[in-house]
Amino acid sequence: MRRPDAGQAMARRLHGKARSLSVAIRLVSRAGRALSKIGKPPETPVGSEAATSDAPAPGPMYRLRSTRALDVDAHAASLSGWEQRYDQLSAGRFCGGLTEFWTAHGQVFLEQAGRAVRQSCRVWPDALWFGIPVRHDGTRMDGRELPAGAILVRPADAGFELVTPDGHEIFGVVVRQQALAAHCARLGLDIDWPRLQHAGWLQVGEAARERAVASLRGLFMALPGQAVQAGLALHAEARREIEETLLGLLLPFVVCAEPAPGRCAGQARRRRTVAQILDHARGHPDWVPAVPELCERFHLCRRSLQYAFEENLGVSPAVYLRAMRLNGARRALREGAASVQDAAAAWGFWNLSQFSADYRHFFGERPSDTLRDAAGISLRYPRRHA
Asked: What are the angstrom distances between the C-alpha of 154 and each of 48, 274, 350?
């Protein structure tokens, strides 16, 4: 078995040699040359690999799938195979996009969100997720802001929370843990699984993050568009090239990246406090607490309460709880509430005219528009927006 220093040396060589955009395009261009071998898809789209793989395949393998969403819940649901719940945090009409494709052993996607969002996420079973931000933008994971040059990592059995700003973009690479382990074993490399499972993020440096982003952009651009449009299956040679490219891209991260520092006792205590408040708020949707009530109920001073929310969520408790209630009212409308007034009252909005104004400012449409769309009623006249 290769010594750790030898593994690190190999990873550095891979890091400098195979992560550049030109290498990614050259590797994937072989997939394009394999178009001459493309035919009608077999009954199982990925051939014998599909029969032996335990990975879920909710999307078509080796074919790009793109979606656009004007609602944060629809956007959360567009990523196939994941358990997700999103809350919009900043005002304005939401617009999100997702481009993804599946391989026999994993999933790759580019996610874009125009508005700030709180995301509660869990990846599909037996998988390891690497999140590679397109740029350093102040994203928080489980209450801690990512430093520059960090990539995210979480296993399937650990849910996590992200708070992302306006204009957030992130590449996701999800790989079956068995496939990654087998790939590293072929190269004589060991994976420190406990570190990956508990790290939260890995410090790889801005240069390495930018190379990974460039490689993934090249991969998406070089995938043969005509095969995607025609709905044809890639030949086994092209599939292998894509698999090797993705697994090779992850090697420097799993071998020699530095894990995130541990959370201090004060940070852990503040995170527990925020979680307790949010759990209580979800259980009492019409609860509209003032800051003094929050301080009294959870035994905090005003300053500690403010700091706990700003550290973990980036906003004050009043702002976040109001956004949470507005998102809840929107879901009630989209799920077929009897009336706007019923949805508003269920989430603690008793002044209907003020609720309508706040809702329109936050989501870019009137609550009656949301309810009408949910009921499938086509409008005779176009909507009027301020």
From this structure: 29, 22, 41
